[in-house]
Amino acid sequence: xxxxxxxxxxxxxxxxxxxxxxxxxxxxxxxxxxxxxxxxxxxxxxxxxxxxxxxxxxxxxxxxxxxxxxxxxxxxxxxxxxxxxxxxxxxxxxxxxxxxxxxxxxxxxxxxxxxxxxxxxxxxxxxxxxxxxxxxxxxxxxxxxxxxxxxxxxxxxxxxxxxxxxxxxxxxxxxxxxxxxxxxxxxxxxxxxxxxxxxxxxxxxxxxxxxxxxxxxxxxxxxxxxxxxxxxxxx
Length: 235
Fold this sequence. Notes:
Strand content: 5-15%
Shape: globular
Strand order of the largest sheet: 1-2
Order of helices and strands: HHHHHEEHHHH
């Protein structure tokens, strides 16, 4: 990458962080305003995605699935309505925050001159990494006692029994490529989405030569963003 390319990369990252700052998604006390997630992500999309057909395809996906209302899990981070979109935004934010220190460090390493990466790559990897969770959970009910001792039906999220899934990261890759077919040869982004959970989502055969994927700085960046969003920010 040229110095001009690197400057543009970091400028775009800062511009999207400015967009994030416009919305008070995370309050000073650590609580979240889920209602601000959708307009924030939409404004980021409008900024970084220049191809009208790609933007339209993405908006169609986000609005016709339950992306905005689904949970991120059933019992871990984001286990509430809107948790998936909130978690995705927090991973985007963390990816943008860590982009400069992580990538500047990477650019000083051997072989880094062969790599080209844009802020759009970072943004899409973060946004799409959990697309596999759309339409994945259903709402069921269980009987519980309220504070007065009366039995009531309480809703809870549960994985649908008819799910077909090729693996957490790989399923998200397939869904991303339906929206962004131009990324079919972008190994940087595809590997990052596929391997964003590290060893925890791999079969024994996939763990073979896993260290090769760690040569991809976007794999490292997305794993770092995903873990810190869940464990540091709590989303």
